[in-house]
Amino acid sequence: MRTSELKEAKWWKPTDRGKILCTLCPRYCEIGEGQPGFCYIRQNIGGKLYSIGYGKPTGFAIDPIEKKPLNHFLPGTSILSFGTAGCNLGCKFCQNWSISKAKLDETYSVEASPEDVIALAKKYRTPSIAYTYNDPTIFGEYVIDISKLAREEGIKNVMVTAGYIDKEARKEIYQYIDAANVDLKGFTERFYFKNTFSHLDYVLDTIYWLKHETNVWIELTTLLIPGENDSDDEIKQECQWILKNLGDSVPLHFTAFHPDFKMKDKSPTPHSTLLRAKRIAETEGIKYCYVGNVLDAKNQSTFCEKCGSLLIERNWHNIKFHHFDKGKCTKCGFQIPGIFN
């Protein structure tokens, strides 16, 4: 493909060793001529870095927004979802590995300009767009161009991400983003380095920044893997960090692992583990904690923290509203944190 048909990347600089330093994420890949970075879709061509995944999603889906998961952002609505090939993490437990671990030429992709994506959202009347499936950090240029157009059309933008991003790059990528679900994959450096080939502190810094320096609504998800990140101590430490740094009202999702990719030797997460984690979170003071990837209507539903009334009943992704109007409990008038219709 001619370079005139490719999107020149942002966030890079030449090195004195004849390579390119990509500054999009904390990997800071040094990329030689003709080579891609760790993510597969940022490539050095002729001494310039190109975003070869730009305009080449692996496909589109209309999802319930609860699938992201987001429980306090436009609940009960649909969301146009897409991703590309590649990823900047190396999660051994990846549930979307056929996409995230694929190179662009190994994955069937479609052509879609930013204008095409907006047209799809309008055609299917989805009030928001999700950049998801792989980590949208790696196609940040595409995210910026789509999300800017979406903002102009009154369409919301959602990132589903691991939060592994450079401090300067994130300012541009998130400028038109309305909500994010950040995968807080565990709470030890050992877990992150061993199982994702990344580092915990960068993720925590991104989460803190999103909460305190942007207007992005955030929710967190931790996939609990038996014997890896599901101890009482680790869950308690995670919850204590959230309370100290983010407050008690950021929704926290504990979801069930199923054996996949390079962790097929692990057992699925017992339902009881999710309930144990939820009890720990609530005991520590987390106001909105949910379980996921299991059938459990009670522990996926939202209750008023003031009077205890059932407000949003979730049975998997089926939604029913009770005593709830535009974010308020109609029984006691309490305003639930979030962004609602």
Task: Describe it.
The chain is 26% helix and 22% strand. It is of the alpha/beta class and 341 residues long. It has 2 domains: 3-51; 60-300, TIM Barrel, CATH 3.20.20.70. Helix 2 packs across helix 3 and helix 7 crosses helix 8 (271-284). The N and C termini lie far apart (44 Å).
Q: How many helical stretches?
A: 9
- Unreliable parts: none
Count of distinct structural domains: 2
Q: Briefly note the structural class of the backbone.
A: alpha/beta
The first-level CATH class name of the largest domain: Alpha Beta
Counted beta strands: 19
What CATH calls the topology of the largest domain is TIM Barrel
Main β-sheet, spatial strand arrangement? 7-8-9-10-11-12-13-14
Backbone CA Rg: 20 Å
What share of residues is helical?
Answer: 25-40%
Cofactor: [4Fe-4S] cluster
Pfam families: Radical_SAM
InterPro entries: Aldolase_TIM (IPR013785), AmmeMemoSam_rS (IPR027596), Organic_radical-activating (IPR034457), Pyrv-formate_lyase-activ_prd (IPR016431), rSAM (IPR007197), rSAM_sf (IPR058240)
Keywords: 4Fe-4S, Iron, Iron-sulfur, Metal-binding, S-adenosyl-L-methionine
